[in-house]
Design brief:
Elements: H1 4-32, H2 37-63, H3 83-110, H4 114-144, H5 148-158
The chain binds MU-OXO-diiron (FEO).
Residues 17, 20, 50, 53, 94, 97, 130 line the site of MU-OXO-diiron.
């Protein structure tokens, strides 16, 4: 059984994970409209991963006897102006998610909730990977400059993501 504070924090995190999926499907639609189907594929895969994260938290809540409380998902910003801007925004967003996961770890420690602390370790590691993969894409875009060619090459690479 987990505490009310941890239950609330996990419910908040579930909302953030689903919001992330929402944000990324909006980004996928934007690049799709530019005929960059490979980059759109990457954002759709990212969105699916976020729903997987939400499901992981929901399963944990259920196993621990915590009540799932679903709240409204905010509408994400859909005013995008460039592909590079999308990835900058993605990295900023992932950093916010990382901070939120770390705050959860701090709360679990404070509550003396070892099970939740151990459960969260997977997310701590996952966030390192999430940030690193987006930072890598930003770096590739910076190397390629603003040429259409570099976008097409990136589209080919990101189109391979399963
Ligand atoms: Fe679920 Fe991208 O963090």
């Amino acid at each position: 059984m987990i505490s009310g504070k941890i239950t609330k924090a996990i419910n908040d995190q579930i909302n953030k994970e689903i919001y992330s999926a929402y944000l990324y499907v909006g980004m996928a639609a934007y690049v799709d409209s530019m005929s960059l189907g490979g980059i759109a594929n990457w954002f759709r895969a990212q969105a699916k991963e976020e729903l997987g994260h939400a499901e992981k938290f929901m399963n944990y809540l259920s196993e621990q006897g915590g009540e799932l409380v679903l709240k409204a998902i905010a509408a994400p910003d859909q005013k995008f102006t460039s592909v590079a801007g999308l990835f900058d925004k993605t990295l900023d967003h992932e950093k916010e998610v990382t901070a939120s996961i770390h705050a959860l770890v701090t709360l679990a420690k404070k509550e003396g909730d070892t099970a939740t602390e151990i459960f969260l370790q997977w997310f701590v590691t996952e966030q390192i990977e999430e940030e690193a993969s987006v930072a890598d894409i930003i770096q590739k875009l910076a190397i390629g400059g603003k040429s259409g060619n570099s976008l097409l090459i990136l589209d080919g690479i990101l189109g391979q993501r399963k």
